[in-house]
Amino acid sequence: MRLSDLSRLLFLAAIWGASFLFMRMVAPVLGSMPTAFFRSATGMLGLLVVLLALRIQWNFSGKLRRFLLLGVINAGLPSAMYCLAALVLPAGYSAIFNATTPMMGVLIGMLFFAEKVTLSKAAGVAIGLIGVAVLTQTGPIAFNLNLLLGALACLVATACYGFAGFLTRRWIGQQGGLDNRLAAFASLLGASLFLLPMMIISALHEPPVRWTGWDIWLPLAALGLICTAFAYVLYFRLLTDIGPIKASTTTFLIPVFGVLWGALLLDEPLSWTYLYGGSLIALALWLVVKPAPVR
């Protein structure tokens, strides 16, 4: 891997790790559903500007409805779940739970898509679950119902990512590709349309603490424009340059940056449990994503 590719990989992990920090800053003030909606909507508008500037041809090849639905599964629901978790969990917790995405993919593939599970992947799932248990039961935050619900919300989000991966392969990949930037825009459009009524109902039922303030809208703009729109473009470029396997190693790095940003900028407590639980999840992730031996 070239030094420039490695630098972009680290930069992308730092950006996505910061997304949990920004959600933790905004969601307790603005509310979980408004935060999720404005993240998706801002990212969608940012990508719209990119598409117009690059003069991308608007051709969805008859797949617009599928991309809108995928946007609900891959962006709308996960964003809502992570914003709910941000009400009760430190940013570092959410970032570490996010690393369980490949393990959720293995479970969902086995249960719903008749995917074969190797011994390595099965061991990875088991070790990953142990890592989650270690983090939730012995971490720096007291184990209670709020912690349990926050962890469950994160796992629902990673399960959505797992489903979206298989549906994308079945609905999109196997029937001809589409410009990745156009696909990302359509996905965020679907997520925004899904989250809009939830945001309105939430704001009417439980109004935000306040709507104004740079401490709300600056991190929210960073969440939508940098952590969503710009990160999509950067990630798709990495997919082209180094391939999906190497690009997926960002999943190993995101928890490191999530914990780091939370400790440095929000004074979140550090604990050796982060290392223990995170190491188990990292080992599980490696067992799941490592290439199978060539016969």
From TrEMBL:
Record domain EamA: where: 10-136, 149-289
UniProt keyword Transmembrane helix present: yes
This protein's UniProt keywords: Membrane, Transmembrane, Transmembrane helix
Membrane topology label: Multi-pass membrane protein
Main location: membrane
Transmembrane parts of this sequence: 9-30, 36-55, 67-89, 95-113, 125-143, 149-168, 180-204, 216-235, 247-266, 272-289
Cell compartments where the protein resides: Membrane
Designated name of the protein: EamA family transporter
Species assigned in the record: Ectopseudomonas mendocina (Pseudomonas mendocina)
UniProt lineage: Bacteria, Pseudomonadati, Pseudomonadota, Gammaproteobacteria, Pseudomonadales
